[in-house]
Write a structure and sequence with these properties.
Blueprint (H helix, E strand, L loop, with lengths): L3 E2 H14 L5 H11 L3 H6 L4 E2 L2 H11 L4 H5 L1 E4 L2 E4 L11 H11 L5 E5 L5 H9 L4 E6 L2 H13 L5 E4 L12 E4 L6 H4 L4 H4 L4 H4 L7 H6 L7 E5 L5 H7 L3 E8 L5 E8 L4
Parallel strand pairs: 5-6, 5-8, 6-7, 8-9
Antiparallel strand pairs: 1-2, 3-4, 9-11, 10-11
Bound molecules: S-adenosylmethionine.
Length: 270
């Protein structure tokens, strides 16, 4: 087995990463993964010798543009680890704002519907943090639902997952709807970073030409008294137009100051 010192392997691949426009820190993250040690251990044991091949293989994927989270098969969201692969969107930190808002606002015992499960990160986080809630989560992608169910098992979550195109296969009433829907207008899709465009599911990113197609459907008459939606940059006015039966009661900005989560209440309710 060819071997190389950790210090030499690390320096060599960090340099290659930099040259390829990849964050050299990714080398340290993956080095810790392949050695099964912490990053602190890796820094302190530069003289140890390892087989360079596993890390070279992973870094080759990274330098071809594959997201770090898919290579590692996991990411963190709201303090929990979620399995992810190319069947689901990689959970984003700003989506934690939606979970926080739902935790704070959901009435005790509320029936909650999450539209667009993806990895299950919203529904599972909400159900684990607020075990009084009855959480259902739907996705049009059966492939995404397989990932969400796997995450639910790991976290011993009792979220009910189902396949549905927005409300099409849904029966029953809900007190609260939460959703991080696909919201990127189709024309903007080609301008996304290649890392996103070439690896994350298109159906998780763009719903059609306007970007608001799923949002419009989830704000129709069959919706719940309260709806919380993650929106895209500059989309608040479009949401206002689509929300004829609702008042916007709160808009939460993300850390970049972008209007990111909209809380809507059906007319006549607080
Ligand atoms: C932006 S991703 C959000 C995933 C996850 N909730 C998160 O926050 O990371 C949107 C999800 O909505 C799903 N989706 C897209 N169109 C849908 C539709 N018409 N009905 C139900 N789900 C849909 C996609 O398959 C995708 O999993």
């Amino acid at each position: 087995m060819p071997d190389e010192s950790i210090a030499s392997l690390r320096a060599r691949l960090r340099e290659a990463a930099r040259a390829a426009g990849v964050n050299p820190r990714d080398v340290d993250v993956l080095l810790a993964d392949v050695t099964g040690r912490s990053q602190a251990w890796v820094f302190a044991h530069g003289e140890e010798r390892v087989d360079p091949a596993p890390l070279e293989t992973l870094m080759a994927r990274r330098m071809r543009g594959e997201p770090l989270q898919y290579i590692r098969g996991r990411t963190e969201f709201f303090g929990r680890e979620f399995f992810v692969d190319e069947r689901v969107l990689i959970p984003r930190p700003e989506t934690e704002l939606l979970v926080e808002a739902a935790i704070a606002r959901a009435p005790r015992g509320a029936r909650v519907l999450d539209i667009g499960s993806g990895s299950g990160c919203i529904a599972i986080s909400l159900e684990r943090e607020r075990q009084d809630l009855e959480v259902t989560s739907i996705d049009v992608s059966v492939a995404a639902l397989a990932v969400a169910s796997r995450n639910a098992r790991v976290h011993e979550s009792v979220v009910r997952f189902a396949a549905s195109d927005v409300f099409d296969a849904i029966r029953g009433e809900f007190d609260l709807i939460v959703s991080n829907p696909p919201y990127i207008p189709a024309a903007d899709y080609d301008r996304l970073e290649t890392e996103v465009r070439d690896h994350e599911p298109r159906g998780a990113l763009t719903p059609g030409p306007r970007g608001t197609e799923v949002i419009e459907r989830l704000l129709d008459g069959r919706s719940a008294p309260t709806v919380m939606i993650e929106i895209g940059f500059g989309q608040l006015n479009d949401v206002r137009q689509a929300a004829a039966g609702y008042d916007i009661v709160e808009v939460i900005n993300d850390l970049a100051g972008i209007e990111r989560v909209v809380v809507l209440s059906r007319h006549g309710r607080k």
